[in-house]
Amino acid sequence: MPIPYLITTLLYIVVALLSAVDVSLISLNFLNVFVALRWMRVHFVTLGVLSQMLFGVLPNLVASVSNKPRPAMRWDIWLLVNAGLVTLVAGFAGMTQIMIFTGGTLIFIAASLLLLQLWGVRGGDAPISLKFYLTGVAYLLVGILLGTGLFLNWSSALYVQTPLEAHIHANAWGFMSLTFAGLLVDIVPLITGRQLDSPQNITRIYWGMTLGAFGLVLGPWLGGSIPPTVIGLVLHISATIWLLIQTISAFKRSDKLKSPGASHLIGSYIWILAPIMMAPFIMLGILQAGPIESTAPQALIYGWALQFGIALIPYLARKFFIGQINPPLGGNWFSVAAMTLGSVLVWLSIFITPYHGLLYGAGFALYALALIPPLQDLLQTVAHGLQKVDLAMKG
Questions:
Q1: Are the C-beta atoms of 258 and 252 separated by less than 8 Å?
Q2: Class of domain 3-388
Q3: How many CB atoms lie within 10 A of CB 333?
Q4: Distance between CA atoms of residues 393 and 387, nearest Å
């Protein structure tokens, strides 16, 4: 992971931790540290922490798996994605359309350049995971278009009936799901020494997730159309469970399943499956959609996406920044327990309404505590890496 991406990843993890503390204090009626805007909090995790990881690592990872030289640092992509995020979040804070448009445009350009960079690696020795990355970034472009359009009244022109849901689905089930799956395909064999599955089955998983994400975006695009949503749901969840079973099997066969890092990596998928499992109850009218739709995305982002990052970001930093041969996955048993209990409490806050604030606040307090171990790990890695750079320059 290049130094600039590693430093900005650290920065956004600190922001994610502080925003979790802020949510907790507000929910518990203690103190308002800074204005807690849901859009800001979510995007500091998705476009902040996770995009820094993915934009910084994917070109190097693909080159490494393909036995090709590492590509040069793309300063243009790094500058565009970070300038875009800062501008976008500032636009959210003031609901300033021109800043939202500018921020969205800069991130769109950065993602397009990353897509072209990855596209240039196709063919020859390109890994099977490359198709996951290319399609995931393509879904990110759709998500950016839909998300920016939410604030600029593009939805009518694009004939998007439920733009917020379509935006979330493009980013969650498209961008993050597919790129995370590609990372599992590449990294689990490096950790366990065992391939996840045959190339043919990996391709089937890819198509299940890709077509599933398409249905989950198309459904809200058409105003909640049930056929594409249900078909997409079945395809996506089936492919995800298949991938998860193979991941668990690889860790178990290598006797590395009972580690905190593996628990973070595998346990994170509980929180992507939880909202999917709620969908039939919402469609049948057994549960109200409003409380689940307003709260579940927070558990999804922190419990699934950020927990996935807790496991992989320290691993990737150690492997690609300081060159450690067999680094461990990130996290410890404390972060596993805090992240799991935090997600349970956030979900319980949906259904136990008299204690919503207490449960929600306690859940985010635990999220903040869970982020401390990986943050310490990354700080040590950065210090070690910069020391090596300094010694090399003096030598």
A1: no
A2: mainly alpha
A3: 11
A4: 10
